[in-house]
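Entry:
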Amino acid sequence: MREKVEKVIEVIRPAIQADNGDITLHDVDEATGVVTVELTGACVTCPASTQTLKAGIERILRDRVEGVTEVVDATAPSSDGTAVSL
């Protein structure tokens, strides 16, 4: 599955690079289908990066790679259900 994800990311990458960003694959969990990526460059400060991740990258990967269920951002804070106290 990882190899297929890598190939699809190589197809997506030029479109992201055209906007001065890039994408790095961090992990593919074959058991859960979760793909972890990091958007870099201009994507870091872009307000549309979450939309790019979910409506673009995730949709394409789910369509083209059997077993992919979700794409998550490696730099996003994890939500492990632990309460945060301020």
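The beta strands are 21-29, 34-41, 70-73.
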